[in-house]
Amino acid sequence: MTPAVAVVTRTRSVSVVTQMRATMFRRALREPGPIVAAMIGLLAAGWLIVYAVRPSASTETLSILTGSWVLGWIVLPLLLGGVRGRVRPVHLRLESIPPAPAAYALLVASALGIGPAVSLIALAALPAHAARDGFGPALIAAAGALLLWLLGLTGSAIALEAVGNAAGPVGAALTGVLTGTAMGVLGSVWAVAPWAGLLLITGPPASVTAVLRWTPGFWPLDATAILLLPLALLVGAAFLAYASLVRRVLTGAARPRSRRPAPASPAHPAPAAPGRVTGSPGAATGSPGGATGSPGGATGLPGGATGSPGAVTASPARAATASAGDFARGPIAGVLGRERHTWIRHPLRLQYLAFALVYGVLLATLPMLSDVDLLAPWAGVLVALWAATMAASLVALDGTALWLPLTAPRGERSEVLGRAFAWLLLVAPAGILLTVLGILITPDANTAGVFAAVAVLPAVLGAGSAVPVWISVSRVRPVTDPRHPTAADNPTDIVSVLLVLLALVVTSAPAFSLSVWGPPWSRWPAVAVGLLCGFAAWRAAAWAATERLTRRGTEVLAAAAQTTALPTAQIPLTWDTEWARTHKITLGALALLTLGWIPVVPQGLMVLVFDIKGAWILASHLTGTAQTATALSMLALGGTLLLTGLLLWDRREPA
Amino acid sequence: METAVEIRGLVKTFGQFRAVDGLDLTVRTGTCHGVVGPNGAGKSTTLGMTVGLITPDAGTIRLLGHEVRAARALLGVLPEGLDLPERLTGAELLRYTAGLRGLDPAVAKNRSAELIEVLGLTKGAGTPLADCSTGTRKKIGLAQALVHAPRLLVLDEPFEAVDPVSALAIRRVLQRFVAGGGTTVLSTHSMLLVEQMCDDVTVVHRGKVVAAGPVSGVAAGGTLEDRFVELVGADVVGAGSLDWLTQ
């Protein structure tokens, strides 16, 4: 390729790919999520700039903040489904674009988005801070900020391509750990805040500063132009790494779904190197070898396999010679065995488990940073609680596989009980162990609190095993691709999560109330009450789920198969009487989702958490218990309005 | 001869589209019965309703003299386009399906091993289903439909995307099943396959039966394919010139 042709190819590629990205981005903006993310990002970026220009701002702290920002930019899209709405190398697989121009074009296109725009603004904090030392340092910091931005852009693309898609279970578990950590820290912000405050005001300790000087986030602030060189080299290395990933996808050298190459044998010859015309990764049709029809197998690979990341592959010999002990004894054991395997292999289920474990443990233990050990015995309860809420959409995660129990004698009952027992076997040991550990590490913990945790645990475990099954067969949220789900396909439905949470809180309430507010002799009976409530909730939810599947199983199956969402009405930006007349449910949902925040935030949380008073805040006109009760009532009222709004939003009129 | 499947006045409507419109179907016990029709004729919807995976708007279905739910123990199903427990391997699917069907583990073990061997799944059965080719999935699906020794098999396009060698293996299994007194109902687009395998055939078009009976009777002395085209009244497309393709 001559240089002139190369330039034309590159320019054309950039233009086409950027237009594709622009179209995807425009469509993404129809949803409220990206707008909210942009507003939050802009607020955070604004705060960073304000902090940077303050005379008391610590250079080291700023470098930590900007470094964390770039790291967050690389990691957050993994958590928030950044693969969606992105032009990816696989989309160009059938196009005649060489790998290097394709990588360049993909990176240019990925710069079009909320993350890159907000990050560019946030990194302006670096030259703003360096300007106090003169024009030269500000110029170096500006160049460094640009290089850091390029590093974030390329790093984000690499992370999404390498971890978000290819690594499957590993990426999913990592996503769960990161999300759980972020939520855990946010949930314990009051305990972490004094440490963060110290960092912002006095800067990090000397030992941390010494290490900081070796991190890229610090180099733009060092006022030494030479330090921009390693930063530029890092950007170059990141680009080469990304180009290599793109090349592997475009040339078919990468088999993102394949971790274990299949051995060739005379009976099952290995396929010829798949050309770019044959198939795309993950697609059931057109996978390499899919049309070759080798003897004894439908594909060029032995047994027609196409490989899988992280999926545990049984050896062929073992597949045929499993012992009778490996076979399930009875229908419930059949479902239980299936679920047991699925929990440890399914990327999203692993993500949910990792999230529940990390989030629960951090919520319980981070307050100990501020010498508050009240929550430590609750670690097991919190882990079980989040594990249950994250299982609220589990049935749909399996796509339309529900047809199997629907064609087996009493299959509905087996399906429900098998799922419930599998969850219990998975979560109960962790819940019990963490509760015991929590009690052991806090010997001085409040006795009533310890008893409350012990009493609530069986209630949460009992309800947590069956209620999510009931909710997930009642509110089916199908996934786009049940065979190869990524973090982007997370079907977790907030209403289902809230319903599970509510059910678990209600189930736990009698045991909690008895152990905390009851007379001292009622503490052991409270444990029995927790057991009884958990058992009752388990029986009731299992019965309801079985009934639902027995009477409406075909509807549940049809809902799970509905993978393409029906188009919904666009909301006009100006008042439209005709639209309002024909879209009353949408209008009602919007009104409730807007008004619901008033009782929650100003009338509830501002009084309960921040003790803010004002003439228009109802609770501030009262004192003591009456004030707390009024604020709590407002919180409940707002929560009800928001939940109703969400339920209505689900039923909004089609386009 | 007894009736294995008896469907009367079956109706199913999706929105404005009437997928199945008063369909009657009778399948004799101990036969292989083909259901054919153009794309969108209502074959899969009919078979889905037959096995209880779709609720009909009207009509009655009796399988081996029972209501659909009561006949589950006697029924083996291979639907088209539905997912499987994708994280399991084929061998594991057989293991747990056998459990779901209440089979004794020792019996299940022997049957699974035999099915895996007969269907040429010795290597494919160790692969997660999510990563199996369509043909391998079909064979594993057929194995799970057979493992509990049903008396009635309902198979939706069992030969789609299956290579000729595997197709031959499946055909032999099905022929043995029917020879042993079992009944097979299968939908397909291959008229040749129906002529080779099936005793009876039902031609479905726009949700209604347009012809039914023994294959030779429906073919009326010609090939089934010609008769099919005639019955569904299709214009044979593809006769245009497309001269630009040869330039």
UniProtKB/TrEMBL annotation, chain B:
Transmembrane segments: none
Organism name: Paractinoplanes aksuensis
ABC transporter domain boundaries: 5-231
Pfam families: ABC_tran (PF00005)
Localization (cell): Cell membrane
Annotated membrane topology: Peripheral membrane protein
InterPro entries according to UniProt: AAA+_ATPase, ABC_transporter-like_ATP-bd, ABC_transporter_ATP-binding, P-loop_NTPase
Keywords assigned: Antibiotic resistance, ATP-binding, Nucleotide-binding, Transport
Organism lineage: Bacteria, Bacillati, Actinomycetota, Actinomycetes, Micromonosporales
Entry annotated with the keyword Nucleotide-binding: yes
Protein name: ABC transporter ATP-binding protein
UniProt GO MF annotations: ATP binding
Gene3D superfamilies: P-loop containing nucleotide triphosphate hydrolases
